[in-house]
Amino acid sequence: MKTLKLLLLTIAVVMLMLVLSYEKIITHVLLPQYISWAHDIDAQAEYIGAPLDEKQLLLASEIGIKFPEKVRIVYVDEVPFPYENFALKVLGEALGFVGEGIVNNAQVFGYSIYSRKGYQLDRPKLAHELVHVLQVERSSFAAVTTQHFSDMAKYGYDKAPLELEAAKANEQYSGAY
User: Fold this and answer.
1) pTM beyond 0.90, yes or no
2) Where exactly are the structural domains of the chain?
3) CB burial class (10 A; 0-12, 13-18, 19+) of residue 24?
């Protein structure tokens, strides 16, 4: 009986070490790769994206963005993701960012909002994305991304705190401009 308890304890310790190692790999290896890639995507938007129009600038200011003139919207066939990095692709699939049947309509990469062509980025949906810009502005892209990845793994998309905050903007700004 003592041997069985020792064996079970050993298995539990090994499993715990594997879980902790997995989290460290994500935090210290994969997230920095994603963040670096996303910084490049955000930098590209400064040149290829459209600045907010007058109504959108007012909305961004009302939401609390300090530098709404920096925000750019880029319309693309598909919201970018680093598919070429196999490990990031697997992580994205595991967290539900990408994969079969998943359509990413819009995503924020700092001050840039990448939106899928054909997706109606109306006032409530734009407000949602602008809250994500605000979240980055309040902290940093790296901190927000790290929190968001962790929250997605823990709560899922619909219950992730950053998404819940942004979803309130959908309701608050549901009217026309």
Assistant:
1) no
2) 32-172
3) exposed
